[in-house]
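[Meeting: bench + compute handoff]

Bench side (C.D.) handed over the final construct sequence. Compute side (W.E.) agreed to return the predicted structure before the next meeting so the bench team could plan truncations. Sequence as handed over:
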Amino acid sequence: MRKGLSSTYDFSSTYRENLERGPGFEGELPPLREALPRPCRLLDFELGSPFGIPAGLLLDSRWISLYARLGFDLLTYKTVRTRRQESLPFPNCLFVGPEDFEEASPGPPGRAPLPEGRRRASALLEEQAQGGQQMLRSLIGEEEGPPVWQLSPGALPPRLRARLQLQPRHLEEITITNSFGMPSRDPSVWQADMERSKSLLQKGQILIASVVGSSDPREGLSGLTEDYVRCAMLAQEARADIIELNYSCPNSSSKEGALYADPETSSHISGRVQRALRGTPLFLKVGYFPHDEPLDAVVHANAPFVQGIVGINSVKLPVAGPDGEEVLPGRSESGICGAGIRRCGLDFVGKVAEIRKRERYDFVLVGVGGVMTPRDIERYLALGADAVQSCTGAMWNPYLAQEWHKQVSS
């Protein structure tokens, strides 16, 4: 059913424009399924399969409806707040690669011209980077396919180079920034839309609500904690099946963006939210840990309060244009996602699975990061993940779940 590579999220448009327009999808929708493709249990839920989409891509009920129809079964509504907050300035998504990488082909055909106000940024970002160094490149496991570069756990590069346009020949070429900063509509809007999203799911699908607290330096930890509680309870009222505390945003300069690396603060908030929810399952969304010691401490501190851990939420790295210039207004670093972070995601899942086994914890482990193909899903499951989610892969190949289901059943 796939007809070439194009993204459902339009990189050349702002976040608000993508939200107002809905997903860019012109393919054929599969018929409503009569049977669950790969039945499994996750906590007390009977799922059609252990595969879905993490917080980020599913901006509202139109995006939820599309990807639910396409067979993604764990659907996470994009992170919401107790107050309205705008996205970080355009551009928000750029293609990235090592400091020196091969010249790429022209940008995707069929995109509308950029508005006048963005031409300067566009001209800068469309410059093609030069260089022949094959930094951080490796073959895709043992399967046949083109060589691709991968971030290497424990040896991250000092900087990545970015550009707005690229015509990918295959999914393994796609590594991007994801620089939004956790925008949110007002609760009166997103609560109603979240309820609508829940009503659009098929049998065997669940809705996860990603929530974040908004910090105020004047209120300290108590204020941040109570805001997490309020947001979680608003999502619970909107009938979310699972509440996910987003403790990791690589594009946020405020405290809530890096809570995942703080065992004491994160567990304090997790415990308070768990008591307030009174039974609704609670997941924890974390980022990449370059060292093992904080990971052990964070898992140990939060395990008594959560029923699931989801990771990783991209990899934070400096990003610049071809000549070292700023390409993301007001921010030199951003979250990296897509094919290039697969090793980091697999490394995280392997380590958490080992901690869970060693300490005899019983939380669910959801693997995220660089899931671009059906084989990537299998890699995560083989390492101990109970479920897997894909954002960039699902963005560029909406039929990813269908392709995996077909392979599993064949």
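W.E. noted at the follow-up: Residues 220-237 form the longest helix (18 residues). C.D. will use this when planning the next construct.
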